[in-house]
Amino acid sequence: WLKENFKGKEFHDTVYITSNPFVDIIIDEGAFYRIHSLWQTEWDEKLGSIRPEEVRKKSEKLCEDYQDKRIIIHFMQPHYPFIGNRQLGGKSAWEVEGERVRIGHNEETPWDALERGNTSKEEVWAAYKENLELGLNEAEKLKDNLKGKTVISSDHGNLLGEEVFPLVDDYGHTPGVLVEKNVKVPWVEFQNGERKKVKENTPEKPSVDKNEEIKGKLEDLGYM
């Protein structure tokens, strides 16, 4: 999703507020007017993720600073780990230390557990829905405070054992598996007053420099 929509392009009228570490790896420096990487400051070590309410609070403040820019706000939820009352699977595949992020799969994800028969589709969907609602509740609060047009959407779906090729089932969202349940996402528009007037400017200096070690880790793991 990131590569297809933003790689090699310029959006100097847009600010990207993200809780997802992949944004800092995949997006070219200077592609956006500014990228604010909330995962570097708001990461919750116990959860292995970022609480959606923290994304909302930080985004509300940042939106006040960029009233002439389009804003992309990238929540982590409903991506696992599932942070609601239904605990399922391990922590996130990301380990964040300051400005660095490591990616690995040492713990069983909900998709792993389902594929191995350690849980059921019903259990996964219940935990996933709860996680989604936690994120959507904060997105709903946020959109009520944003002027002009707001869209709530998603970067991808997830598979729970559907057949993607003859005799091949898949789980989660494997790159390159472009089946409908992976790529068909909601697109819900809201209008709050007149559309704001946006303008392009020379990109601001990024909040932190991209880290070559992150890229190396991703390459080692086959992500790049």
Detail the topology: elements first, then pairings:
Layout: H1 2-6, E1 11-18, H2 22-26, E2 32-37, H3 52-65, E3 70-74, E4 94-97, E5 100-103, H4 110-115, H5 121-144, E6 148-153, E7 159-165, E8 168-172, H6 180-183, E9 187-192, H7 212-220
Parallel strand pairs: 1-2, 1-3
Antiparallel strand pairs: 4-5, 6-9, 7-8
Helix pairs in contact: 3-5
How would you briefly describe this protein structure?
With 224 residues, the protein is of the alpha/beta class. It contains 7 helices and 9 strands.
What does this structure look like?
With 224 residues, this protein is α/β, with parallel strands linked by helices. The chain has one domain. The chain is 30% helix and 23% strand. It has seven helices and nine strands. A three-stranded parallel beta sheet has the order 2-1-3, covered by helices on one side. It has a two-stranded antiparallel sheet with strand order 4-5. A two-stranded antiparallel sheet has the order 6-9. Helix 3 runs parallel beside helix 5. The longest helix is centred in the middle third of the chain and has 24 residues. The chain is globular and about 50 Å long.
